[in-house]
Automatic annotation (TrEMBL):
Organism annotation: Massilia atriviolacea
Annotated binding of heme, by residue: 77
The keyword NADP is annotated on this UniProt entry: no
Keywords linked to the UniProt accession: Heme, Iron, Metal-binding, Signal, Transport
Part of the whole protein covered: 25 to 149 of 149
Domain of life assignment: Bacteria
Taxonomic placement: Bacteria, Pseudomonadati, Pseudomonadota, Betaproteobacteria, Burkholderiales
GO molecular function per UniProt: heme binding; metal ion binding; oxygen binding
Protein name per its UniProtKB record: Group 1 truncated hemoglobin
Length: 125
């Protein structure tokens, strides 16, 4: 039998590591916060700060070496009454940003599954 010599790379590594995750977040947060279908909650939000926070969050969620210390998802989105449509708009921009950075289908689907599991914590708060 074959004994694996090294653990399988984390999703974080397969996404291309910190540089790629940061670039993807920079891309999709810029798009979501500018699109008329999804921009209403971004008024007055410090986008650089948000991008840094979302990068750390995704790094941590995908098994990377980060520790997310921001607010819970329910608290972060409290009072926004986010809709499934807004979440879909974001999901599409995430996917397109990943494609632009050369991330393959398997990894895109894995990240989508992680984000889908958080939907209940961000919608309708
Ligand atoms: C699964 C989906 C989502 C995840 C995982 C997520 C993640 C996050 C994270 C990590 C933060 C930063 C919280 C902090 O720094 O304490 C944040 C803030 C924020 N999110 Fe989301 N988010 C999601 C969906 C959305 C959607 C669909 C929208 C709007 C279309 C949105 C709008 C915002 C805004 C405006 C903030 C900034 C709040 C502020 O600084 O006052 N989020 N989100």
């Amino acid at each position: 039998p074959t004994v694996p010599l090294a653990p399988a790379p984390s999703l974080f590594e397969r996404l291309g590591g910190m540089a790629n995750v940061r670039a993807v977040v920079d891309d999709f947060v810029s798009q979501v916060s500018a699109d008329p279908r999804s921009k209403r909650t971004f008024d007055g939000v410090n986008l650089s700060r948000l991008k840094a926070s979302v990068t750390t969050h995704l790094c941590s969620l995908s098994g990377g070496p980060c520790k997310y210390e921001g607010d819970s998802m329910a608290l972060a989105h409290r009072g926004m009454a986010l809709t499934p449509e807004e979440l879909n708009v974001m999901g599409d921009y995430v996917d397109r940003a990943l494609i632009r950075r050369g991330v393959a289908r398997t990894e895109r689907d894995e990240l989508k599954a992680i984000l889908d599991r958080l939907a209940g914590e961000v919608l309708n708060k």
